[in-house]
Amino acid sequence: MIQIYGIAQCDQVRGARRWLKTHGLEYSFIDLRATPPSQTILLDWLKHIPFDSLINRRGKTWRELPEERRRQVVDQGSAVDLMMEFPLVIKRPVLSWQDQLAVGFSDPLYSGLLLASLATDTVSEASSSEASS
Fold it and tell me: Among residues 4, 10, 102, 103, which one is catalytic?
């Protein structure tokens, strides 16, 4: 199932959720405030994208961090520590589906990631059904 990580008030998250609903795709929403991602989840995300892509350096949480704390984020380990301590520094939304990850939202990004894959899955299922008949 598709998972969306974010906060409900975020415009990008609202856009992503609206897009999924419009396209009839089921998803689960994980609020970063109520359920911050575990270290295991963060490390899994970092298998797919660099740590710099996961940290929202333009957001309020980042801007309110002391300069010294911001300078400490120099590698994957320090980035994970920061995201564990301040989950709202994570760029939103994070979409996790099968073995794929997307950060941020745009129609072309979601279309390319989800619709193309779903069409391929549907064709594969149809081929399997025909072969077993």
Answer: 10
Q: Reply yes or no on whether 10 is catalytic.
A: yes
User: How many residues make up the chain in this entry?
Assistant: 133
To the nearest 10°, report the CA torsion of 100, 62, 27, 19: -90
130/71 Cα distance (integer angstroms): 58
pTM of the model: 0.85
Q: What share of the chain is helix, strand, coil (3-state, %, to 5)?
A: 55, 15, 30
Diameter over CA atoms, the chain: 65
Q: Give the separation between CA 107 and CA 24, rounded to whole angstroms.
A: 14
Q: Which domains does the chain have, with CATH numbers?
A: 2-121 (3.40.30.10)
Q: How far apart are CA 133 and CA 128, in angstroms?
A: 9
**Of 59-63, 82-86, 118-122, the least confident:** 118-122
| DSSP H or E run through 11 | helix 11-22
DSSP state of 89: G
